[in-house]
Amino acid sequence: MLHLSSGGRKLLAFSSATLIAMGLLAGLSAGSSAHPSHKAAHWSHGGGGGGAGFTVQSWSKPGDPAGVNLWTLTNGRGMTVTITNYGATVQSIWVPDKWGKARNVALGFPTLADYVSDFTQGATQTPWPLPGGSGDTFFGATIGRYANRIAGAKFTMTCTSCSNNGKTYTLDANNGTNTLHGGYLGWNTVVWTGSASTSGHDVSLTLTHNFPAGEGCLIPPSTTCTGYPAPVTATVTYTLTGGGALRIGYSAANTAPAGGDATVINLTNHTYFNLGGESSGSVFDQLLQINANTYSPVNTNLIPVGFAPVAGTAFDFTHLKPIGQDIRNTLLPDGGGQAFPQLVITHGYDHNWVLNGSGYRLAAVAKDPQDGISMLTYTDQPGVQLYTGNFLVGDLQGTSGHTYRQTDAFTLETQHYPDSPNHIGQAGWPSVVLNAGSTFTSTTSYQFSTAGHGHDHYARR
């Protein structure tokens, strides 16, 4: 049996037969083909004889940031992923459905200019494409130095054997009074250095960048701030496996000298998933299960106010259920203790779930019952943020030319908890402190699978 336990309680305890029937162990058909829209490449490697391969093309046009490329990775077994080194961003994920038709299950933009305009509109104070729109979506991006929100756009460092213990740092207030996803110019707005390689049916893209001390402070639009302490050298490695997984390996090294400044770190990927296809409409009928008995209610500033059990609330995904089943139900208790129901405050789901267990384990299962595409999320992080595209208002045109609206996708952002820098050392809050000379590492995998008519294909993670 596949199971995860916390305090003796088994979760996600499906029998093998049930998993096979749902297609959750099913692999990608070797006979299927994916056809992303970007074909031209300056050079390519591998891909012959059914093996893994990649192509890379320049993606910069006049007026764009220089040196931006788009890599197309294929595992030779029916799955293709496109990734750009602008923001270390996933643009598309092509997966064959149960009929062998390739579907792009990730929301994204067709051009680099779209990503630049979307990701930097806060920094430039220029709403894009129109005032009153969706705001910065972070489609597919690598998020750092600190993913999610930090209350009041500040924190006080608590550390040992460091030079900045007790020092308070102020950051960009780019989300009301909070810092969100690193500030106005987070890790999603820089051009990373990339290189690709193949090994059997696996293909990898490694992206690196050096981030200085003081990032997370842009004046203007901020009036005064310090930014994050300490320089960090970061590496993100995307691996498309022969078994149909997109594995993301993170590494962040605090390169301050020994005994120097500590910093805080929290990294995630912000891909928006729609397992029915990126332009197929609402994900409300898609099924989701999260390996968590507890979640983090928030206040009206979207900052956690503690922890609450999911049992009996709309936040209970301990069993597979449609994403939209309870998303409008504000009559259930939610444990938030706030003047407004949680689903009203966040316009849907935009919360951290406290994952059961520790180490690299199954965090969530998602499935589209129509096309048979399933996704299993594995991580070694303590939490995951489920977000249901609550602020997509129909002003953005995606890779297929269609507009994106509220509920057209969901994210599963594996992470440390929001606002952890303001809870350093407190019980129940895993540490996000990265001391000088230390390296943070983490792995998250999104394992895709499909079930065909009358037969199953088994994936290898």
Topology:
Blueprint: E1 2-6, E2 9-14, H1 16-22, E3 43-46, E4 53-58, E5 69-74, E6 80-84, E7 89-96, E8 102-104, H2 112-124, E9 142-143, E10 149-150, E11 154-156, E12 168-170, E13 179-180, E14 193-199, E15 202-211, E16 232-240, E17 245-254, E18 263-264, E19 268-269, E20 287-290, E21 292-296, E22 308-309, E23 321-322, H3 342-345, E24 350-355, E25 361-367, E26 374-379, E27 383-387, E28 393-397, E29 403-405, E30 411-415, E31 433-434, E32 439-449, E33 451-452, E34 455-456
Antiparallel strand pairs: 1-2, 3-4, 4-5, 5-6, 6-7, 7-8, 9-19, 10-13, 11-12, 14-15, 15-16, 16-17, 17-32, 18-31, 20-23, 20-25, 21-22, 21-24, 24-27, 25-26, 26-32, 27-30, 28-29, 33-34
Task: Describe this protein's structure.
This protein has 461 residues and is mainly beta. It has one domain (2-456): Distorted Sandwich (Beta-galactosidase, Chain A, domain 5), CATH 2.70.98.10. It has three helices and 34 strands. It has a nine-stranded antiparallel beta sheet, with no helix packed on it. A six-stranded antiparallel beta sheet has the order 3-4-5-6-7-8, with no helix packed on it. A five-stranded antiparallel beta sheet has the order 22-21-24-27-30, with no helix packed on it. The longest helix has 13 residues, at 112-124.
Short description:
With 461 residues, this protein is mainly β. The protein is built from 3 helices and 34 strands.
